[in-house]
Every structure is written in C-alpha cells, then in structure tokens.
Design a protein that fits this description.
By secondary structure, the chain is of the alpha/beta class. Helices cover 39% and strands 16% of the residues. The chain contains 14 helices and eleven strands. Helix 2 packs across helix 10, helix 10 crosses helix 14 and helix 11 crosses helix 12.
Length: 361
C-alpha cells in the first residue's frame, strides 16, 4: 500500500483545501500523531512484502481508495487486504488517500480523484439526491462503535447544553449520529454547537486540548483518551444498535468501464473479511491494528474484541444490511435531510458487482 503524502493527496483531490489542516505548512502533529501525516506503519509497505501473498503478476493495477482517518474499523479492506496480499492476488496494488471528512471523500469519488471510497453512506445519499452519479456496491461496516468522549466536568448530556462538541464536518455521518444522540437526551439543534474538527485523530486532539467539551471517537483513540482520564458518556450503539456505517462507494461513470477491476477489488475485500474472522489469525490481526494505528497491544486487543466478538461490525461477504441502511435513511428523514416518502435502500445500491465477485470466488 502506498499511503500518500499531504502534497500528493492534495494534488489528487484537485484542491489542497480539501485536506484541511492536515496539510497546512508547519502544522504540528497532535498526540497521538494524526494518521494522515504519514504512511501507517512507518515505511509504506507494499502488497508484495506480505508473507502469505501468492505469486504476483508482473504488473499490478493501481486501485486508488480514499477514507477518513486511520482507525481500527478500516482493518479488513484497507490494511489486511493490502498487507496480506489479497489485493495483489487479484492483480491490484492499493494507493490510499486519507482525508478528514466523509463529504471530502464523496467529492473525491464524484470528481474522479479516487476510484472508490470506504465511507459512511449519509453524505453519499445526500450527494446522490443532488444528482451525483454515485452508487454503493458493498458493505464495509454494519454497526457504529463510536464513543462520545467528554471533559471530566461533563456528567450528563444536559451538561453539554451551551457547549461545543466536535464532529468531522457539519453534514457528515458522525454529525447525524451525534444529533440523534443529543435529541434522545432532550437537546435540540441550537442547544449546543457542532464544531467541524476533522477525523478521529483531529477530534481526539480537540478534546484532549480542551478546545471542545466532547466528541465522537473511534477505536483505538477512545481507549487511549479514556486511559488519560477522559470519561465516555455513551456509545452510539446505545441509541442506534443497527446502522450501516461504511460502504464501498464508486462513481457509476468509472464503475462501468472498470467492471473487472472493481470486481477484483471486491474479491480481495471478501478474502480479507474471511481472514479477519478466522480465529487462527486473531493475534496477527491485532498486531496489524497496533502497526497501523500506533496504539498499544492491549488497546488493539480491546478494539478487536469490540469489533469481532461483541458487535461483529464487518459483513462476511461484503453484503449491505438492508435494515441497517433503512436506519440511515430513516434517521436522515427524522433530521429533515430527506423528504417523505422515504426511498428504499435499493435506490442507492448496485449489488451487481458484488454478485459477480462472490459468484466467481
């Protein structure tokens, strides 16, 4: 996998502003180091170095993928599929772009700067409603293990009244979830301020510095900041137990002419899901979380246990959960971002590529 530098990512996205403060000259790294600063795991590994990789073809096609942050929930399709040689097995090499919000990831796929994105469906659905030629072709994560982390003085949701809470952007999936959690506890829009702070690493830094009263964090950053004394006010799953959180998003204008490439990417993805759920690979998978996120072995193990043993957040064969996608659409309706009658999930999904991938695997 080649994880792109800030300047290269900005070039691919067309505007350096799309990457926000992560690429600002002289920007100091937060603690923990913002993953988008440098390739995960130090020197960028390639699929050809994976110990279990079969003999590779002479030339590999580049698959450009964009995602938000370097966090444990991207383990199968971003890290395992690359480092264990599954992309290479199917004639691909991964070029990874890391940005700081789902809206920017959606913009990159819409504009052709990335072949695909692993991203929350909320922003993608809203873009499609505005005419963007996008479709979701596979599921990546069917539950949302967000922790709402707050300052020590915050003891209840009501203590967040009049305070600032960090999210990735004003229209991101994280913001949709945050607003749902606040509403369930009697806080309406306007009772608190949402601050667009960027991805999980940037939100971690904002909470840690005291710039905001709280924010939603993924793993392992939530475990890391809890170890420093910051409390978890709630899990997102306490309020939304089933919710399609990540899907593979593509541009229809790219997918048609590149069907073979897309199908091979889906096969590699499914190989990675099967590998992650195999108990024989448990310790190695935890090691990959340590390597990519720069966390401790103990926190990586907690992350893996949450994802695999408790929530089973990843699908086994790339399927999108219809009920989980309906929960997304219904929540967008509740928030006034989609008008009734609410559409069926099939409006936003093209399962044909996944069917071809699974039929030939």
């Amino acid at each position: 996998m080649r994880s792109l530098s800030c300047s290269r990512r900005a070039f691919l996205l067309g505007l350096s502003a799309l990457l926000g403060p992560a690429c600002a000259p002289g920007a100091a790294p937060a603690a923990p180091p913002a993953p988008s600063k440098a390739p995960a795991g130090g020197a960028a590994p390639t699929a050809s170095t994976a110990s279990s990789a079969p003999t590779q073809p002479a030339a590999l096609e580049t698959l450009t993928s964009i995602q938000v942050s370097i966090t444990g929930n991207y383990l199968p399709f971003a890290y395992v599929a690359d480092k264990k040689g599954f992309y290479a097995r199917h004639g691909l090499t991964l070029e990874l772009i890391v940005t700081d919000s789902t809206s920017k990831a959606v913009q990159a796929v819409t504009g052709g700067s990335a072949d695909l994105s692993w991203t929350a469906p909320d922003a993608a659905i809203l873009a499609m409603e505005q005419g963007a030629p996008l479709t979701m072709v596979a599921g990546g994560q069917n539950a949302i293990p967000y922790s709402l982390i707050v300052q020590l003085a915050i003891k209840s949701f009501d203590d967040l009244r009049g305070k600032s809470v960090a999210s990735s952007s004003l229209t991101s999936g994280a913001t949709v979830i945050l607003r749902k959690m606040m509403s369930a506890n009697g806080l309406r829009d306007g009772d608190y301020d949402i601050i667009p702070a960027g991805g999980t690493a940037e939100r971690y830094a904002a909470i840690r510095s005291g710039a905001v009263a709280g924010g939603l964090l993924l793993q392992p950053e939530d475990y890391m900041i809890i170890a420093e004394g910051f409390p978890r006010l709630a899990y997102a799953t306490d309020y939304i137990p089933k919710y399609q959180w990540i899907t593979m998003l593509v541009n229809k204008n790219w997918a048609g002419p590149n069907e073979d490439k897309l199908v091979r990417a889906l096969r590699a993805m499914n190989d990675a899901y099967h590998w992650v759920y195999d108990p024989a690979n448990r310790n190695e998978a935890i090691g990959l979380i340590v390597e990519t996120t720069k966390t401790t072995e103990a926190m990586a193990r907690q992350t893996f246990e949450l994802y695999v043993d408790q929530l089973k957040i990843w699908p086994m064969n790339g399927e999108i959960d219809d009920d989980a996608m309906r929960a997304v659409i219904e929540l967008l309706g509740e928030l006034g971002q989609l008008n009734p009658p609410l559409p069926d999930p099939s409006r936003y999904i093209d399962p044909s590529y996944l069917r071809k991938a699974t039929a030939s695997s």
